[in-house]
Each structure stands twice: as structure tokens, then as C-alpha cells.
Design a protein that fits this description.
By secondary structure, the protein is mainly alpha-helical. 66% of the residues lie in helices and 0% in strands. The longest helix has 30 residues.
């Protein structure tokens, strides 16, 4: 167990964090999975989860620090309706899931689980429609719009595809 900050313990933490980060950079996922699994071999799982939350939180805070006040205000304005809609749904469904009555059935768990998923989805996805983003804000803050598909200089000919497959039996 990593009770003291010995040089071997510090090297182990650094190595696991490095390997998990490299895996995340190469594969696009796996930082929390690999890091938590490796840390759980030497500490209890609750401490391993905390070890992995700290680097993720630090990276996210550093990304928010890179935004100007204007960009941060634009993000919060864009996400405010989704958070306002999803947060109450998520809170009520989480309360129902974590404080169930004595005898619950599969329908109860599926229903409240679906409600929790809906609330989380509303809060975690960016809006695709609505007001256009300010063009002076960097491209990483703008939502993907359908204008990208319309502005293709030479769109592909879809009439060939429609003619080719129109004779298929239905």
C-alpha cells in the first residue's frame, strides 16, 4: 500500500499516469480505466478513483483557464438552457435511484435509469441549432452546423445513386 511518499511510490504514480496518458493520446480513451486499474492494485479502489480524478480535473481547469471572458461567457450562454433542463431531471432521477423503496422492480430501475440518462444527455451535449456562434470566437467553441454540407463547392451527384437503386425489389 502507498502509505508514504517513498521514491518508489512517487515513481509508480508518475509511471502509471504517463502510461495512461500515452494510451489516451494514442487510442483516444483509457486514461481512467488504465490508471484506476493500476492504482487499485496498490491502494483501495476509492483512493485509486481519487488519484485519477485529480489529473483529469487539473487538465479541464487548465483548459477553462485558456478561454477569455468572452469565450467563457459564450459557452455558458450556449449551454445554460440545456443545463437548466437536464439538471432537475438528473437530480430527481438520481435521488430515486439512490433511495429506492423496499421492493423495486425492473421497470422502476429502467424508468429512473432512462430519466437519469436523459438528464445527463441534455446537460452534456452541445446545441446544434439556434443562434449562430459569434465568428470572432475560436472554432473550438462553435457548434457544427448544416452549412458545412451546403457550402461544398462541387456536391456529389446523387441522381446516379437514386437511379441505380430504384430498380431494387421492395
Amino acid at each position: 500500500m502507498l502509505a508514504a511518499a517513498t521514491p518508489a511510490a512517487i515513481a509508480f504514480v508518475a509511471l502509471v499516469t504517463f502510461v495512461a496518458g500515452v494510451t489516451n493520446g494514442v487510442a483516444g480513451f483509457g486514461f481512467a480505466v488504465i490508471g484506476t486499474m493500476a492504482f487499485a492494485t496498490v491502494v483501495d479502489p476509492a483512493t485509486a478513483v481519487v488519484f485519477m480524478i485529480v489529473p483529469i480535473l487539473a487538465v479541464n481547469v487548465s483548459l477553462v483557464n485558456d478561454l477569455s471572458r468572452r469565450e467563457l461567457r459564450a459557452c455558458s450562454t450556449r449551454f445554460r438552457p440545456l443545463i437548466a433542463a437536464g439538471l432537475p431531471i438528473l437530480l430527481v432521477s438520481a435521488w430515486a435511484l439512490f433511495r429506492p423503496p423496499e421492493a423495486v422492480g425492473l421497470g422502476y430501475l429502467l424508468g429512473w435509469g432512462l430519466a437519469a440518462y436523459l438528464g445527463w444527455t441534455l446537460m452534456s451535449h452541445s446545441p446544434r441549432r439556434g443562434r449562430r456562434a459569434d465568428p470572432s470566437i475560436s472554432t473550438r467553441l462553435r457548434p457544427i452546423t448544416s452549412e458545412a454540407a451546403v457550402s461544398i463547392p462541387n456536391p456529389p451527384n446523387t441522381s446516379f445513386t437514386a437511379k441505380r437503386y430504384s430498380s431494387w425489389p421492395t
